[in-house]
Amino acid sequence: MRILTLIYEFPPIGGGGGRAAYDICKGLAARGHEVTVLTAHMQGLPFEEHKDGIRLVRISSFRRQMFGASFMTMLAYVLAGLWAGFRLIRLDRPDIIHAHFAVPSGALAWMLSVVTGIPYILTAHLGDVPGGVPEKTGKWFRWIEPFTYPIWERAKKVIAVSEHTRQLALRHYSVNVEVVPNGADVKHLAPSKIEVNTPPHLIFAGRFVPQKNPFAIIQILSQIKDLDWKCSMLGDGPLFEDVKREIEKAGMSERFDLPGWVTPETVLEHFSKSDILFMPSLSEGLPVVGVQALATGLAIVASEIGGFLDLVDNEKNGYLINVHDIPAFSRVLREVILNPEILLRLRQASIEKSHEFDIQKVVDQYQSILQGVLHGD
Asked: Are residues 8 and 109 in the same domain?
């Protein structure tokens, strides 16, 4: 197959959705499919390159930040993508289009499909579904939601990355939605041996935005300052400096490491030296960092929301806590930090759980879906 993948942010820029798309594209390319990705450019990156069997074409969208895209940069991606997309279609003649995120990439897929007749499938990651991340996109969807219906209805197949995302989509769109989770290369990420660090090391990885609830990390950990632990917070965003100030006010600067925005490879390096993925998020699709945490043998302490329901078997490989129950988060972390044998058991269970999210299984599913669309299934 010749596949044109549309996604407005793709590694090294963007978050977990881009990483998930990268892993899928890499897997499809390894199976002999021709994969071209049309994504947004950012200063310092080449406009075109080949990587891991994928042809990457980047278009100007005035993006200035690694960690986030504004509505205007998304709109610029769609407008620039029309010209670039038609050119790629004319020269490469793709069989099918795969759009990640209904907004904005799905809008571009819809336009290209209407004009050229090339079918597309759509993968929804949560923030592109009305109500998925209300603190981020609530205002946008108040006026753009009516324009999104044709995007979902024209797609030959619609995929959600988690059951939570699927259910949310079904509230708004009268289409069939199936779940294909994000995956990771679990075989290569699994450590040869798991040993609990002394002191235990907690880690957060994500954008410093309200959705990820980074201030709760400080509030929760300040209640267990009497224990010995370390915490790394990987990422950047508009709340980064405020988070640093709150850590200083709490007198915990020596306990925290905040390296800023790091590459996906560096995230994995940090995971290999950590014990607990700590994510008190307000909303999540199916976070790639969560899948990678499983594969690298981290216990997960997270909010009882969204995709974490798929990643955590409560009290087996981690704990799911009501996002507003700060004392419960503190109690769980206190117990785990004080009992290395419990932490070790949780970490070992995460390795077992990770096999459900093997990227090869995920690529199998996408390959079957794409081929099914082309064969009229």
From this structure: yes
Question: If you ran DSSP here, which 8-state letter would residue 334 be given?
Answer: H
Q: How far apart are CA 299 and CA 327, in angstroms?
A: 19
What is the dihedral sign for C-alpha 288, 228, 225, 346? positive
Domain that holds residue 38: 2-183+358-374
* Strands 48-51 vs 54-59: parallel, antiparallel or unpaired: antiparallel
Dig out the tokens for 141 from the structure: 């969807």
**Tokens standing for residue 246:** 């709150």
State whether 340 and 200 are in the same domain.
Answer: yes
Those residues whose C-beta lies under 8 Å from the C-beta of residue 88, and which sit 6 or more positions away, are 4, 36, 38, 57, 94
pLDDT digits (tens, 9 = 90+) for 258-310: 999 888 889 999 999 999 999 999 988 888 999 999 999 999 999 999 889 99
pTM, rounded to two decimals: 0.86
Low-confidence stretches of the chain (pLDDT beneath 70): 66-67, 134-140
CA distance 155 to 110: 8
